[in-house]
Amino acid sequence: MVDRKAFFSLSYGVYVISACDGRKKAGCIVNTFNQVTSMPAQVSVAVNKENHTTGVMLASGRFEATVLAESAPMELIGRFGFQSSADIDKFAETAHALDAAGTPYVTEHAVAHFGARIVQTLDVGTHILFVGEVDEAAVLSDEPPMTYAYYHEVKGGKTPPKASGYVPDEPASAPAAEAAPAKKVGWKCKICGYVVEMDELPEDFTCPICGMGREMFERVEL
Q1: Which of 65, 101, 196, 206 counts the most CB atoms within 10 A of its CB?
Q2: What whole-number distance in Å separates Cα of residue 106 and Cα of residue 73?
Q3: CA neighbours within 13 Å on the CB side: how many for 218?
Q4: Per residue in 144-173, pLDDT tens?
């Protein structure tokens, strides 16, 4: 028996993994970035095979990892964690810089960055595990780094379906035998928790807090 709640006791950070294949920049949010060795300095990260960033990493042979600070807004996390680099340029509205190899990394609400050359890959099913040798690193601020627990418990963030730690929601319980009193209906943003009271959301509706579109809202009773 595997109790998936046991995994919730593991400690993680929140990072932006980015890459550039010479034509297009890509980036995504992960919580699986880790140091592997110190001599030489090596790091690892697991990225979902379906992420556009994965293909760019494989094509370029490099990646950048930005350690996000607790101050990182949900709009930034939503941009990199719940949208695809195949559809938008995530760096267009994000402060960033390029490392010596031309790979972009986020500079706003960032604690540090690590540029790495990919030296090994391992297919682990839904994800590819990348091992990289760090050839550039720098501290960007003295802000406290965001932990995955802080992201969930303080910011009320959700886990993207492609994340390593994603667990599908439990099925809803059966309705009660007697009809409950009528309740008001609204829509809640799954990224930042913003709630708007209305029966249906317009197709072009965007969250005024984090900028997410209609597809990231769930229907709730108020």
Answers
A1: 65
A2: 13
A3: 8
A4: 999 988 888 887 766 655 565 555 554 433
